[in-house]
Amino acid sequence: MNLYRALSSCSNVDGVEIIQGYPNTTYETLILPGVGHFQDAIEKLHETKLDEYIKNHVANGGKLIGICLGMQLLFEKSEEVKSGSTFTQIDGLGILKGRVVKLKSKTLPHIGWNNISIEKNNLKCELSKYDNRYFYFVHSYKVLCDEELIVAKTEYDGEIIPAIVRYRNVIGIQFHPEKSHKDGLALLNEVVRC
Q1: Which of 68, 80, 110, 145 is catalytic?
Q2: Interatomic CA distance for residues 42 and 44, integer angstroms
Q3: Which DSSP state fits 74?
Q4: Which residue is catalytic, options 57, 80, 139, 178?
């Protein structure tokens, strides 16, 4: 998610305040956007100590919403390491159980509009109205996690991909709501408020 779009989209969501730099206060909800490389992003979070802030926020009952790469960073490990790295996997935030693996398709990244299937609604807000609606995806990796976490799925090139995950106060969204027009912004607004 590019920063301009993230800020513009979030400014249209009720009750969202945009902060820059390390927060010196607590917030009810944090949004972790992201586009780019997993290893670069997790290293930046470590370097700025935002990883500790995010983990403490969740441990103290605050809501966390990860979008695209932000969703993937929530998990324990990822195969997305820098070229030439001696690692085969890199640690994520470890807030959710699971790992990030490369999509099997020969056509990567997966870019485009896909419909989502709401598997179950374990959120306090009603998401069934978004069943079979189309949202904009841009990614080459997906999450492998327990079915219990999966709220919605999509399919790309015969491969099932978790589109929305949730565990307690942590929600991950693989697609880009800020690029998904009216439905994307409405869904993001509901998820932030519920």
Answers
A1: 68
A2: 5
A3: T
A4: 178
For residue 52, indicate whether it is catalytic.
Answer: no
pLDDT along the chain (194 residues), means of 10: 51 58 78 92 93 95 97 97 80 98 96 96 84 98 97 98 97 97 95 88
For the entire predicted model, the pTM comes to: 0.89
Note if 194 is an active site residue.
no
178 tagged catalytic:
yes
**Structural domains for the chain:** 3-193 (3.40.50.880)
Among residues 57, 110, 139, 176, which one is catalytic? Answer: 176
